[in-house]
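Give me the fold.
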Amino acid sequence: MPPPDQAALAAAPRFAAALREALGPAGVITDPVALRPYESDGLTAYRQVPLAVALPRSTAEVAAALRIAHESGIKVVPRGSGTSLSGGALPLADGLLLGLGKLNRILEIDLPNRCAVVQPGVTNLAISHAVAADGYYYAPDPSSQIACSIGGNVAENSGGVHCLKYGLTTNNLLGLEIVLITGEVLRIGGRHLDAGLYDILGLMTGSEGLLGVVTEVTVRLLKKPETARAMMAGFASSEAAGAAVAAIIGAGIIPAGMEMMDRPAIHAAEDFVHAGYPLEAEALLIVELDGPKVEVDDLIARVGAIVASHGGSGLRVSESEAERLTIWAGRKAAFPAVGRISPDYYCMDGTIPRGRLPEVLRRMTQLSAQYGLRVANVFHAGDGNLHPLILYDANKPGELEAAEAFGSDILRLCVEVGGVLTGEHGVGVEKRDLMPTMFGEVDLNQQQRVKCAFDADLLLNPGKVFPTLRRCAELGAMHVRGGQLPHPDLPRF
């Protein structure tokens, strides 16, 4: 991160006093010990204690905090539950950390319009729990859904097991309330199916806190399918399982979810959850099919035949809801399970074309040998979103740096085969310096011009996403000073 601005550090006491006047004493933290829990997000390899933490309780308080920061020239890092794995909520030593955890109410459930209006601090799973009795649910389901907040899901465009059929966060949003760095409150979209003109809703989703702070979210609710059944099978190699994935999609079948785990992940998950996974397998494929019962029965037969034709064995199909949840339990708990077999692990996130999966898995095995580090693979196989978990020990000199280099090579490989740097975890600081691997200078400059349109002073989450953060003036932005554009004598078109 860039070195702290000494002027901002000097202004900290006045800034904190202004925040306390607006938010109350309980809404502002400046004590060094009390700041320590906010020093990192889920990417714990990087830590930085913030200048101060603000804990607003309403949209009005968020607007007030941002307005004060803007007037004081203080940078702001928005934070939800802190489960981000890309360093998106990494604080700044000269910046305010804006915690949104107190905005945690479900404001309205509107079943006739199949939507719910929630504050950003509501956890992902809480939305589904709130509407379960009426037979509805919220589709995106990250593995951290018990803890991750819906505002963070919007910032990172989170996915999950069921994003293959039902889409990521961006496909399940209807409206947002956002606050700009100036304190201005905007409402985008609503309860209607779609909006005309510019797709600002799509622009905000996945913007990683660089454009505005989300203070209210209107999400789409779906009716629970009549039937949902999970099936799993073991394979003698990850390449064979990957080929089965491509064949299932190639047959025109879109499962509700299709996940894959390799041998290290299988053993870690089974030891942790005891889901009945085949320990002799080199790879495990889990496929969920949902819909009307007759359709699900037919799809199970078709998928079973494809799995068998690609060497799958030990096919098991859930016969009850409890058994379905048990099959998924190991996959949902794979990350903490891997944490039991290694002092540290580095969770990657890249996306590739499904047809290149066997090749990428083979080359990742070669990279594992090259770096001398084990890797456990857990990923959303259906949409090609990989989550390799690189195992290392931070107490051993050089292993963290080796894990980072290994991860960078995996992401370069993803781009090389026609994929992208991230599927759902975002860029943050983790992938920031790899952005030129995927984008040229013209592309990056254009993205930064969008940033300038929302945040001309570059105060919102600076140091994230862009490898080189230019001033807006360098990108051709024109600023109004004293109510006048530069060179007011020139005609404007």
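The radius of gyration is 23 Å.
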